[in-house]
Design goal:
Helix content: 25-40%
Oligomer: single chain
Strand content: 25-35%
Shape: globular
Number of helices: 7
Low-confidence stretches: 281-288
Structural class: alpha+beta
Distance between the termini: 33 Å
Radius of gyration: 19 Å
């Protein structure tokens, strides 16, 4: 029986009630964050909460009254659900109002949080890698906001599964933008780590930021520029990052193998560095 946090109270999920006039339901007017926890400790929680604040401000959504307590609420939610390693999903909508485009809610914003267990280092994507397809990016031009309006991503992921692959990488006129729920990295023939620079066209992933910091500390050369689709055919390695993927090797794109079709040494090295980072001192990364 799962316990969620809803508007100031811990309640059983089956007892939770949200108004049909909540603007998250009627207009998709909401933002969210996903923060992972390892051994009861959150990974990069300040970065996730700072991004939540940016998303709220960008959408004009008032922060929930619990904003200053969010970290402690997240910790308690893990405990109430007996989760040590897993994630907390946090969603904020602008609240309840008559269904009108310009009406502003008079009450509080809606805050919903849930916790679930997951062993990220044991997922097939992390251990074995994923096969992906390319798709033109049809989404809106503020992908830097972590909005709950995820229909294009849902459609892309379902289409990928229907085509026998795991996920989709989006592209635009400049090159690869991002995965349907991840940031994309390429390793070129010289060992340089390439990823698209941040803009309104892609999400500033917290895992992406941490991987770049770890890679720089480890001495990797980094080139933040758009990745051309043609480069995937000659790439030495490719991988994606997110809070739930962590660092997942990309083995093939549109049926064409990346290099030898196996996870590369750079990807494995960055997996180990990230595992060591999230685990902290005293715990070895799972065997890969």
């Amino acid at each position: 029986m799962s316990i969620i946090f809803l508007n100031g109270a811990y309640v059983r999920a089956e007892d939770a009630r949200i108004s049909p006039f909540d603007r998250g339901f009627t207009f998709g007017e909401g933002v969210y964050e996903v923060c992972i926890a390892v051994n009861g400790n959150f990974v990069d929680a300040p970065a996730h909460l700072a991004r939540l604040d940016r998303s709220l401000a960008a959408c004009g959504i008032t922060a929930p009254p619990e904003r200053v307590e969010l970290h402690s609420i997240m910790k308690e939610l893990l405990q109430k659900n007996d989760v040590r390693t897993g994630l907390v999903y946090l969603q904020v909508t602008s609240g309840v109002s008559p269904r009108n485009f310009t009406t502003c809610p008079e009450g509080r914003s809606t805050l919903m949080m849930l916790a679930q267990a997951s062993d990220f280092e044991q997922t097939p994507a992390f251990r074995d890698g994923i096969h992906v397809q390319l798709q033109e990016d049809i989404r809106w031009l503020h992908r830097d906001i972590k909005t709950t309006m995820l229909l294009p991503q849902v459609m892309a992921k379902r289409n990928a599964l229907a085509n026998g692959v795991s996920d989709t990488l989006f592209y635009d006129a400049l090159g690869i933008t991002e995965g349907a729920s991840s940031n994309v990295f390429l390793v070129d023939g010289h060992g340089t780590l390439v990823t698209r620079p941040l803009s309104n066209l892609l999400l500033a992933g917290c895992t992406r930021e941490r991987i770049l910091e770890l890679a720089q500390e480890a001495g990797f050369v980094i080139d933040e520029r758009p990745i051309q689709r043609a480069e995937l055919a000659t790439a030495a390695e490719c991988f994606v990052t997110s809070a739930t993927y962590l660092v997942a090797p990309v083995l093939s794109v549109d049926g064409r193998a990346i290099a030898d079709g196996k996870a590369g040494q750079v990807t494995r090295r960055l997996q180990h560095l990230y595992c060591a980072y999230i685990a902290g001192e005293g715990r070895a990364c799972a065997d890969i």
